[in-house]
């Protein structure tokens, strides 16, 4: 099932809101926006519409805005943003803020339905930057041990986990791989990154062996003719990224390691790269980043450890 189901997203919104959202999605598709981006943008706008219809207080006078997005005001957005902070989190509210910025920008510039965006003076929610801890080799070893064996699921899960560990890829990048994206001649994988930015990343012998073993057993499974690399246990269907997310968490728990998810290996990759003295520009290419802020952000939770190791190696204050 695709991530983006417009019928489901627009449940509970007015016909006018639904029409605008469908037109906006058409515009986003024409702009080649990734499905995950389209989903997050459309969901933010639909959630605002439902809030104005179901949760807004009477003093907000939101009846017209609940029917038509061109009637939305700054006060409506700020109330929605505050509600999001209270019921979800500041980081979630920030994501909604960014999505709504794009929606009302489209209404103003592309559709010329409004003269000014209600987002014009709405402040972004302040968030506390959480440091995601890297996952240590010992913990990864435990998770991989939980996959040990020659059964289909064991071979599949080890191959998936080794790709995250060895290449630092995003959850969706590994999750959406096709069989053709794997090249066992060059031991490399073709990732389709955010913003249609593709890249090829090499992987090591252990990962190559794990992927090769999985491909051999995959060839004998129902659904082997599918282009998708990862197959579900039953039914000959693809294993979607969300299924991989659940699998990783389950494997972590069975290994006695809490909080295991794909992004922790991404942070670990950045940490180990910096620890080895790797170039930040090369890291950006491997990770599929365009912002120079990203190398500083990833692996930040272990930055103090790297600094202490460098300090010890340099021997400052030990010369007298």
TrEMBL record:
Write down the PROSITE patterns for this protein, in alphabetical order.
Answer: CB, TYR_RECOMBINASE
Instruction: State the UniProt keywords alphabetically.
Output: DNA integration, DNA recombination, DNA-binding
Pfam families (UniProt xref): Phage_int_SAM_4, Phage_integrase
Q: Which parts form a coiled-coil structure per UniProt? A: none
Provide the Core-binding (CB) domain boundaries. Answer: 15-108
Give GO MF terms, alphabetically: DNA binding
Q: Which domain of life is it from?
A: Bacteria
In Gene Ontology terms, what is a biological process of this protein? Answer: DNA integration
Matches recorded under PANTHER family: INTEGRASE_RECOMBINASE PROTEIN MJ0367-RELATED, PHAGE INTEGRASE-RELATED
The identity of this protein, by name, is: Integrase
